[in-house]
Structure formats: structure tokens, C-alpha cells
Write a structure and sequence with these properties.
- There is one protein chain.
- Helices cover 20% and strands 38% of the residues.
- It contains 6 helices and 20 strands.
- The N terminus is likely disordered.
- It is elongated.
- The strands form 4 sheets. Strands 6-7-4-11-14-9 form a 6-stranded antiparallel β-sheet, with no helix packed on it.
- A hairpin with a 5-residue loop joins strand 2 and strand 3.
- The longest helix is centred in the last third of the chain and has 24 residues.
- It has 281 residues and is an alpha+beta fold.
- It holds the Pfam family AIM24.
């Protein structure tokens, strides 16, 4: 069946929030999607830098420094952006902004009012937001913070009563957990979850899995009640596969090549020393 033809620039899906506000948006595309959001007069849209694809002529774009985003100056020192792209509509007519997903995946519309005004998400998951939504870093930039919990894995928290849009790699599944219901997932596959879920990180018990490799090295046990969104292809996993494909053949086939070489020579040294000791005896 052919895709529907739109005679006007914008025929979106209109979402009516329980708080009374209406947000009109349209998600187009398959694997790499584009989000088009209608921006009303005197309304603003906040997006991650570099995600704007197009916008109407009555929209003004500006990059603003938001100290609550991404941990402030510490993130800038380590090479991450501490600014956000803000799109404001000063005209009397409605405008629109097209936001492109930065990697193959699905764009997820989230009304924070349906999740108690708070939502934990991955650092790369936030795409843009409309109205009253703040993005804060959940990782305290001090050495004394060594406890590993949901805030250390899901490094951002969304607060407010507005509309936020997240992006998950590959396909995205939504799991609604009943009270005391437990699900075990790969920690890297969690896009977002509600703060009511009890998060427990499980590290690999066998050291050889860390040395010689193995999938799902860090799993998380989630206990309801709450809602969790799970992605099939995390961005860092996709980037690792691409890096391996363009690396040297030996590194591409075995990314832990140097570790295995060191262990080989160490075991050879132990065997030689042991044989010499046994021969002397």
C-alpha cells in the first residue's frame, strides 16, 4: 500500500495531554525517522544540538547554555555539549520544526504527566521536548559517588509536565511491570524507565567472561511496578560494530587481541619456569 500523500506541509497527530495542553507532531520514516513538531505562537521547542533537519520561516533558532543539562562544565571538559538548541516561534501563526534521529531507531513520544513527572533515560536517548521539561544529569561528578544504580546507568532524568521525545536504537519494546514483577535485561538496552522501578545491577560472576569476552556482561534486574522501554540495538553497540569493520583484520576479528597475546606469553612463561623447577628437582 502506498504511503499517504499530504497536501499541506503539516497534518500531524494531535496529542491531548491530561494536563490540558495539546501537542501536534508527526513521525515519518522507517529505520531512520524524522519528527515534525508543530510550534505554536510564543511556544518553544528544546532539542539536542545537531538534530534539526528543517524548520518553517517563522521559527527562530538559538543555542542556549543550560547548566542543568548533561552535568554542566565537567561534560564540556570531557568533550560533550553543554548547550541545547532552542526553537522559538515569535509570530502569530503556527510553525513547525523537523528533528532527525541521530542513528537508526524509533522515536518515542513521552508525556511526562503520565509517568508522574519524572523519567530516567540513557544519555543518548533524549531528542527534544516541548513546554515544561528539564533534562538533568543523574551522575554526580565527584569521586565519592561510587554506588552503581539506575542513576549511574541511565545518566539523565527528565522532569516536568510537558512532552518529551526519545530515540531508541533498532526496535523498541514497552514492558509494563506489575507490582513485584521481575524482569532481567541487558543494562545497555534500557532506553528509559519510570522512577518507581527498583533497579539492581548484576556484574558477571566469572572473571573469564570479562577477559575473554562475552555478551550481556552487565545485566539489570528490574522489579515493578513501572514502565520500561527496551531497545534492540544500543548506539554504542552499533558504533562498536562499525569500528570493528573498519579496523585492521586482526583487531576486527578479535577486539581483545592484545589481552590474549599477553596472557599467552604469561602462561608460556609460567609453564617454562615450572618445567625448569621440576627438572631441577
Amino acid at each position: 500500500m502506498a504511503a499517504p500523500f499530504y497536501s499541506t506541509p503539516f497534518q500531524p497527530y494531535v496529542y491531548q495531554s491530561p494536563e490540558g495542553s495539546a501537542t501536534a507532531f508527526q513521525i515519518s520514516g522507517g529505520d531512520v525517522q524524522v519528527l515534525q513538531v508543530m510550534v505554536k505562537s510564543q511556544e518553544k521547542l528544546t532539542a539536542k544540538p545537531g538534530t534539526m533537519c528543517y524548520m518553517s520561516g517563522n521559527i527562530q533558532m538559538d543555542n542556549n547554555y543550560l547548566p542543568e543539562n548533561d552535568g554542566g562544565v565537567w561534560q564540556w571538559i570531557f568533550g560533550k555539549s553543554i548547550s541545547s538548541s532552542v526553537f522559538f516561534n515569535p509570530a502569530s501563526d503556527d510553525g513547525y520544526v523537523g528533528i532527525a534521529a541521530p542513528f537508526p531507531g524509533r522515536i518515542l513520544p513521552m508525556d511526562l504527566a503520565n509517568f508522574g513527572g519524572e523519567l530516567l533515560c540513557q544519555a543518548d536517548a533524549f531528542l527534544c521536548s516541548v513546554n515544561d521539561v528539564s533534562v538533568t544529569s543523574t551522575v554526580e561528578q565527584r569521586p565519592r559517588n561510587i554506588e552503581i544504580g539506575a542513576e549511574m546507568i541511565l545518566k539523565q532524568k527528565l522532569r516536568g509536565q510537558g512532552m518529551a521525545f526519545l530515540v531508541g536504537g533498532g526496535s523498541v519494546m514497552q514492558k509494563i511491570l506489575a507490582p513485584h514483577e521481575v524482569i532481567t535485561v541487558d543494562a545497555a538496552c534500557i532506553v528509559a524507565m519510570t522512577t518507581t522501578i527498583n533497579f539492581q545491577l548484576k556484574t558477571p560472576n566469572q572473571p573469564r567472561r570479562v577477559v575473554f569476552g562475552g555478551g550481556n556482561q552487565f545485566t539489570a534486574s528490574l522489579t515493578g511496578p513501572g514502565v520500561v522501554f527496551i531497545q534492540s540495538l544500543p548506539f554504542h553497540r552499533l558504533s562498536q560494530r562499525i569500528a570493528r569493520s573498519v579496523a585492521a583484520p586482526s583487531l576486527r576479528d578479535n577486539p581483545k587481541f592484545f589481552i590474549q597475546i599477553v596472557m599467552f606469553f604469561f602462561l608460556a612463561y609460567v609453564m617454562i619456569v615450572s618445567s625448569i623447577i621440576l627438572t631441577d628437582v
